[in-house]
Specification:
Helix content is 17%, strand content 30%. By secondary structure, the chain is α/β, with parallel strands linked by helices. The two termini are 37 Å apart.
């Protein structure tokens, strides 16, 4: 058996790859309906064609007034106003105010002419059908959204490289943008290798296993905004593996190889990556558990990642390496952060300094209640990295940093939720 590889911290291995990829999208761009752009990456700055709000509008139900007319008003000495009209919702103001006059205003509606503030209805009192008392003064602009206060015409709404979220789609709708230019979804070819691996719908023979990694990795790629391309299965024939890898890389933006990154005379993933293009292998082996036998490569400008064959290891490495690479290919420099929660560790988690550990944990309510007001308990789900159901039974991953020798039960921890 060959001598074991020299391991690198996962962040350093990823850094070697990202440093060689362009900061802007390298996969091209396409036009997309703004309403269907959730999770897509903006390929160019998106600029507001108009200001929002387009007019001064009330942020409260109340009365449009001239602010100066309210100065000095108190509960004991209120200011009297004549109500001269109303500005209905969705209608332009048909009334203008003179000294001591007010008009009924609705939340989101336009202010009356000459008005520069809105008095909340709670700060007024009706005297009769035509007169109100104002109990406190308002400043110019109070309870008013000014034109362009939300966004100004010509202002960048979303910068290039931004991952479009639900609220962003709302912003695009608000300024009338129906089409956006987004990065094409990076195509990620996924190749599973090994004589022991069979299709999921095939009954495995003796010493065979179903292909898990092609499907979990494809799902992870899709969740990162990529377009997975499953290349199928190739047995332990080096020339067939190399040919399949070449073909997959040629028609995609990135290649992921599964089950061929451990040190074995039959697993030649390192050699394959080295032959696919320059500079080839950037890192072989991570100071990580699970996921130590992983490969990071760059082949003529396209990333090539070798995943361990064990499903848990493959998913952890995919999240650490493949996911950020997919976002970078689309021009996103800072991928969206994973959802995290604070929990109390329910059992000691040992580790070894110099190695990062990712431990599946299940979250359960704190004892004596439903978890309300208390942090949940993070209970490790122990199992070897070949056991996919350890992740199914878990709610997230606990990260043990490389400078730690473990975490004790009862400590507060951060859990990266699935």
């Amino acid at each position: 058996m060959a001598e074991f590889f020299n391991v690198l911290p996962p962040a350093e291995a990823l850094g070697r790859l990202l440093a060689r990829l362009p900061p802007a999208a390298s996969v091209g761009a396409e036009s997309c309906c703004a309403w269907d752009a959730l999770g897509r990456v903006a390929a160019a700055d998106i600029v507001a064609p108009e200001s929002l709000p387009a007019f001064a509008r009330s942020t409260m139900d109340g009365y449009s007034v001239r602010a100066a007319d309210t100065f000095g008003a108190t509960d004991g000495l209120p200011a009297w106003f004549e109500v001269v009209g109303e500005v209905p919702m969705g209608m332009a103001a048909g009334v203008s105010l003179g000294v001591g006059e007010a008009a009924i205003a609705h939340t989101g509606g336009m202010l009356a002419g000459n008005a520069d503030a809105v008095v909340m209805v709670e700060q007024t009192q009706r005297v009769d059908d035509r007169t109100i008392e104002v109990m406190r003064p308002v400043a110019p602009g109070e309870n008013v959204a000014q034109p362009g206060e939300d966004v100004g015409a010509g202002e960048v709404v979303l910068p290039a490289g931004h991952v479009i979220r639900a609220q962003d789609i709302g912003a695009l709708a608000a300024v009338g943008i129906g089409k956006v230019l987004v990065a094409r979804r990076p195509r990620v070819a996924i190749l599973a290798m090994g004589d022991e691996v069979v299709h999921p719908q095939q009954r495995p023979g003796a010493a065979q296993v179903r292909d898990v990694n092609s499907y979990t990795v494809a799902a992870q790629v899709a969740s990162a905004g990529g377009a997975p391309v499953r290349l199928g299965l190739v047995g332990d024939d080096y020339e067939m593996q190399l040919a399949a890898a070449r073909d997959g890389l040629a028609r995609s933006d990135m290649l992921v190889l599964s089950a061929g990154s451990s040190v074995s005379v039959r697993d030649r993933t390192v050699d394959i990556v080295a032959e696919l293009g320059e500079p080839g292998v950037l890192a072989h082996g991570l100071s990580l558990r699970p996921g130590k036998p992983a490969i990071v490569g760059l082949c003529d400008g396209k990333p090539a990642i070798g995943l361990p064959g064990n499903p848990v290891s493959a998913m952890v490495v995919c999240d650490l390496l493949v996911r950020p690479a997919v976002y970078r290919l689309a021009g996103c420099l800072v991928p969206p952060a994973a959802s995290e929660t604070t929990a109390i560790l329910g059992q000691d988690v040992p580790s070894a300094p110099g190695r990062e550990d990712f431990v599946p944990v299940a979250l359960r309510p704190a004892e004596g209640g439903d978890g309300g007001g208390n942090y949940p308990i993070a209970q490790p789900v122990w199992g070897k990295s070949g056991l996919i159901f350890t992740l199914v039974r878990a709610d997230g991953l606990l990260h043990v940093p490389a400078d730690s020798s473990g975490i004790y039960a009862g400590e507060s921890v951060r859990v990266q939720r699935f």
